[in-house]
Amino acid sequence: MRPVVSLVVCSLLAGCAGQPAQSTSKPDSAVAALYTRMDADTQRYLTASDGGKAMEETAALDDLRAAANACANTHGCDNARFVAAFDKLLRERSTQAPPSGDGQSAPTEESGEAGESAPVVAALPEAQRSVALLKGRKLADIIAMNDPVKLAIEQWLTQYRPNLMKAYENYQYLRSRMWPEYEKAGLPEALLFGMLAQESGGKVHAVSRSGASGPLQFMSATGARFGLGIVDGFDQRFDPALSARANAAYMNERLGELNDNLELAIGAYNGGEGAMQRLSAHAPQESFWSPKIYFALSQETRDYVPMVLAAAWLFLHPDRYNLVFPKLETKPVRVTLQKPASLDELTICMGQSGNADGWFRTLRNLNPALDPRQKLDIGTVIEAPAPAAAEYAKSCSAGKWVELAADLHSAAQPIAPPAPARESRARSYVVRKGDTLDAIARKHGCSSAGELARINHLKAPDYLVRIGQELRVCSRG
Asked: 332 in helix, strand or coil?
């Protein structure tokens, strides 16, 4: 009855079957009875588990499953509370289960998806079953197919499909730099892609309105905490390898603080670790999808977490969604420039062969420290994908495309001539009741009351004027 789980991996249950429900009214008697039954079954299972009473464990799980099914058919019953109860049992079992001999708990062919042979998981209603191991294992079924995640998948497959495809393309060219850092940290590659897709779309030089920068959008202070500084004038948040390393360190730190709850860790990356720690401390047994957590978060974070999970899921299972990611030749090679050129010029002479969108973004991503408009000297070494390197050898050493690129690059925006000095011309004004020297000066183009006083030889310090007095005033033109 006890699932064999390594001490260094986590069994995670990701949420409920639908959108978390926020209820402000007192549950009716039928719903309250189901909640009481849920609490009793949960405690009954834990007590039986501690005492090694396998039959009592099974009976408690069977009744908990029946109560969950009844909740799904009872108006006003919040099914997320039942899924949170299953989540609690899974975590309890994962912390008590002994490790297997090799430190891994590989499922057999008969057990189906990783972790789904565990009795707690087997007791879950089918629509809510979604368990996987995180660290050291592939990210498989950690993502519950609840309504927020389903909606996010729909968004990626419809209005944001071009963003998803471009993010995948950008990531494939960056993969040799970013994935090793995540792999060394024991985190799933799909999580890296999900965060990259949502944060920047794989644009290494992305900068948000709030100042978050780089492919994984670190704020300056947070980046500095995880080793991203300014070196020789280059902001290391734009370095794809270093930003992936920092992101992995951040996520592992959050997982350690948040009981290895992936959704909460992702939420902390977006909404702030302090806020997520406080919420988790106030409701330590609750999942991200629990109304106590979910509705206490900003709308941005409630959207962000499903979008990351959905992108990660599509990265793992494109075939399930009629999605075909492009096959790309992404191996980076070193190119030594045979003549001075900027990345802008190289993009023009390389054309579109091997990349329908041209090579600008890829060259920028692979050479993040270079200004794309700066002329690079002969002998400068840059990195480029093999197809781009072949285009460089073919079209960028000499010929009409090189000349065209140089001609376009030499163009400059016209510089506006300096504005002519504004001249002053004098005219007169008759003082009226209520006028002051300041008001007259502002109304008639003088720079100050002092200037108006000088024009009219008024004596300091009072600069007295009288009704009916004619003053010379300034009109700027």
From this structure: strand
Percent of the chain beyond pLDDT 90? Answer: 44
pLDDT (average), residues 254-278 = 91
Q: What tokens were used for 463?
A: 């600069």
Contact 338, 187 (CB under 8 A): no
Q: Is the peptide bond before 461 cis (omega within 30 degrees of 0)?
A: yes
Report the C-alpha gap between 288 and 85 in whole angstroms: 13
| 265: amino acid identity, one letter | A
**Rounded distance between C-alpha atoms, residue 270 and residue 291, angstroms:** 19
**Tokens describing residue 240:** 């794809």
pTM of the model as a whole: 0.64
Helix, strand, or coil (residue 328): coil
Interval 399-414: pLDDT, tens: 999 999 999 999 988 8
379: left (phi over 0), alpha (psi -120 to 50) or beta: left
Q: Which residues pair with 455 in a beta bridge?
A: none
* Domain 148-321 CATH assignment equals 2.60.120.260: no
Architecture of domain 424-476: Roll (3.10)
Distances (CA, A) of 357 to 337, 362, 376, 401: 22, 10, 23, 17
- List pLDDT tens digits, range 47-79: 887 776 778 888 888 888 888 888 878 888 887
Cα–Cα distance, 125 to 25 (Å, whole number): 26
DSSP E strand boundaries for 131-263: 131-133, 230-231, 234-235
> With DSSP H G I counted as helix, E B as strand and the rest as coil, what are the percentages for the chain, rounded to 5?
50, 10, 40
Whether the CB-CB separation of 350 and 359 falls below 8 Å is answered with: yes
Return d(Cα 67, Cα 128) in angstroms, integer: 14
Closest CA to 451 of 416, 476, 418: 476
Report the C-alpha gap between 228 and 77 in whole angstroms: 47
Show the tokens assigned to 405: 């690129």
Q: What is the pLDDT of residue 40?
A: 92
Q: List Cα–Cα distances, 63 to 66, 116, 168, 239, in angstroms.
A: 5, 19, 45, 53
Boundaries of every domain in the chain: 11-143, 148-321, 332-410, 424-476
Least confident of 79-83, 111-115, 369-373, 440-444: 111-115
d(CA 167, CA 328): 13
**What radius of gyration do the chain's Cα atoms show?**
33
Q: Both ends of the chain: CA-CA distance in Å?
A: 91
Distance CA 393, CA 150 (A): 46
Backbone angles phi, psi at 235, to 5 degrees: -80, 115
**Helix 161-184 and helix 189-199: axis angle, to 10°?**
130
